[in-house]
Amino acid sequence: MAAEGKGQGRATVTLSDVARLAGVAPMTVSRYLNQPDTVREPTRLKVRKAIEQTGYVHNRLAGSLKSSRTRLVAVVVPMVTNPIFSDTFQAINDRLAKAGYQVLLGVSGYQSEQEQELLEVILSRRPDGIILTGTLHTSTSRNRLRAAGVPVVETWDLSAEPIDMLVGFSHEQAGRDVARQLTGQGYRHFALFAVDDPRGLRRADSFIATLAEQGVTAVHRQTWQGLPTLEQGRLGLSELLKAQGEEGQEPYVVVCTSDTIAQGVLTEAAARGIRIPEQLAVMGFGDMAFAAHTFPALSTVRIDGKLMGDTAAGLLLDRLGGQVATPSTVDIGFTLVQRDSTGVPSR
User: How far is CA 236 from CA 193, 230, 245, 263, in A?
Assistant: First the structure.
């Protein structure tokens, strides 16, 4: 049995240690770990008890070197506190777990350089597949992923040049559709609140460009660094009201690149006694769980994160099973959700 010497750490418990305690051959322990159905129940019980007593951890990587499979899939998301990403990750994890895969989660923080560092560590673990958020990666990351020959699924975006497989939607189209819907409702005064998430900024740029096509060229725009917060929405509305002054204009509609920022706008409006949508309209993005239950209920853009995750995991499993993904790019689209926070402005 492993011993702990003075001034030294505890030695690693080996498969032989488990076999010795269970009173069986090492080969029997190996069969229990890799093909438990081939070991008789009384023997399985003895081996299981010995593993629990010793704290032995099966080295799956060592056993996978012969089969070239680790049964490990890495998933990289920008953040875990945003429900739209956590829903996608949960769907991926559920689908892969049913197929016998373990999931390794990495958080990139919307930073391509941080993603590059994560991928260097991830690839050293020899994963069977990788699922990424977005299509914006460093050239080093792209080269490493292609050289590794590991199946890759990019999510939450569309691209003309995916690394491998792709599941997402058009952020540019989302920006265009929001602009067209709101101008179609009669709004002519717009504010845009965003964080420097590259996908959100592409929606924002597309939104403003489409407004310009509709003859709306003056847009009050505020952009913050980091992750979206309620504080940004509250501060943003305060600044908008200062800029608006007492001109008595028709109602603004504040379009936010995140439901979180939009909720902050609603909170600040309530604190100031501003009626929504009569005096101010608000539009979010993501359709988070709280969006339908704010007061008033938040209009937003719905993305089916669970469908995204399940589809991505399905494409990866097909590839790992030897099937060719057809199609290799899946556009899951989005839905504009009209609720009480936007309405036709009064004339």
Answer: 7, 10, 14, 12
Dihedral Cα 156, 157, 161, 165, nearest 10 deg: 30
Q: pLDDT value at position 144? A: 86
**Distances in whole angstroms, Cα of residue 334 to Cα of each of 29, 172, 217, 227, 308:** 51, 12, 26, 22, 11
Strands (E) in the chain, as ranges, are: 72-77, 102-107, 129-133, 152-155, 165-168, 189-195, 219-224, 252-256, 280-283, 300-302, 329-331, 335-337
pLDDT (tens digit per residue) in 308-341: 999 999 999 999 988 876 678 999 999 999 999 9
Q: What is the pTM of this model?
A: 0.78
Angle 318-321-326 from CA coordinates, rounded to 5°: 30
∠ CA 81-84-89, nearest 5°, is 80
Higher pLDDT, 18 or 62: 18
Quick one: pLDDT at residue 250? 66
Radius of gyration in angstroms for the set of CA atoms belonging to the chain, rounded to a whole number: 26
Residues 193 and 175 sit within 8 Å (Cβ to Cβ):
no
Give me the numbers of helices (H) and strands (E) for the chain, helices first please: 12, 12
Rounded distance, CA 20 to CA 16, Å? 6
The angle at the Cα of 60, spanning 56 to 64, to the nearest 5 degrees, equals: 150
- For 228-269, how does the pLDDT look when each residue is reduced to its tens digit (9 = 90+)? 999 999 999 999 998 876 445 667 899 999 999 999 999 999
Tell me which of 168 and 248 has the higher pLDDT.
168
Contact (Cβ atoms closer than 8 angstroms) between residue 189 and residue 251: yes
The two three-digit tokens of residue 55, written as one number: 């704290």
